[in-house]
Amino acid sequence: MDKNVIQLISSPMRVMKITRKSTAEGYKDLEVGDTIFFIHDLKSTLGASNGVYATQIELNCPVKGISVKKSSNNTLRLISGLVLKEVFDK
User: Fold this and answer.
1) How far apart are CA 60 and CA 81, in angstroms?
2) The dihedral sign for the CA sequence 65, 67, 68, 72
3) The model's pTM
4) Where are the alpha helices (DSSP H) in 1-90?
5) Separation of alpha carbons 23 and 10, rounded Å
6) Residue-level pLDDT at 87
7) Residue 37: which of 15, 12, 58 has the closest Cα?
8) What's the start-to-end Cα distance of the chain, in Å?
9) How many CB atoms lie within 10 A of CB 85?
């Protein structure tokens, strides 16, 4: 990993309820009972030339092989349709 990047990883969260089904890649495959987590690479985007200026949040569901990145605004919109509970078991 790039030494100029700090990777922030959320606690695992269980999908307790889906209040609004999504058609977005990755999110459409989530089901009640799935355990997910989010990753954010904290890095400078100053002068970014690859077209990515918004903060990207990665959704991961290892059991289903889901790993998709969305902007932070899209991520917040998509998870507003989920009831999540932080889980501490392994």
Assistant:
1) 17
2) positive
3) 0.83
4) 72-79
5) 23
6) 95
7) 12
8) 26
9) 11
Local structure of 65: helix, strand or coil: coil
Residue 70 near residue 59, CB atoms below 8 Å: yes
Can you tell me the distance from the alpha carbon of 19 to that of 84, in angstroms, rounded to the nearest whole number? 11
Q: Taking the mean position of all CA atoms in its chain, how far away is CA 24? A: 12
The neighbour count for residue 3, using CB atoms within 10 Å, is 5
For 12-62, the pLDDT digits (tens) are 999 999 999 999 999 999 999 999 999 998 877 666 555 556 688 999 999
Contact 72, 10 (CB under 8 A): no
CA distances in angstroms from 42 to 49, 51, 52, listed in the order given: 17, 17, 13
3-state secondary structure of 28: helix
Cβ-based neighbours of 16, under 8 Å, separated by 6 or more: 32, 83, 84, 85
HSE (CB half, 13 Å, CA atoms) of 59? 23
